[in-house]
Design brief:
The two termini are 21 Å apart. It contains three helices and four strands; from the N terminus they run αβββαβα. The protein is an alpha+beta fold. Helix 2 links the parallel strand 3 and strand 4. Helix 1 runs parallel beside helix 3.
Length: 87
């Protein structure tokens, strides 16, 4: 499945649950996750990939830096992965 369809599904599912799912673009930092999700008192970041695709080495590095600072970063590549994340 294309990344854009998976990302749209994520946005829709977060909104259905009364959460916020903002696109995150950082002009000075490549590799940041695609979305910031705020839902049920939690804040976490989501990298969206096309089905079967993996984050790039640069994305993995940035995600690791964020995780080391205490952030939760998740990667999803399917509707099922989104459903499991939001469950």
């Amino acid at each position: 499945m294309r990344e854009s369809l998976i990302e749209s599904y994520l946005v829709d599912q977060v909104k259905r649950r009364k959460g916020i799912c903002w696109k995150w673009v950082s002009p000075s930092r490549n590799g940041v996750p695609d979305r910031i999700v705020i839902i049920d008192g939690r804040v976490f970041f989501v990298e969206v990939k096309a089905t079967g695709k993996l984050p790039t080495p640069q994305q993995l590095h940035v995600h690791g830096v964020m995780a080391a600072a205490g952030a939760e970063v998740f990667t999803v590549d399917s509707k099922e992965a989104i459903d499991a994340l939001l469950a």
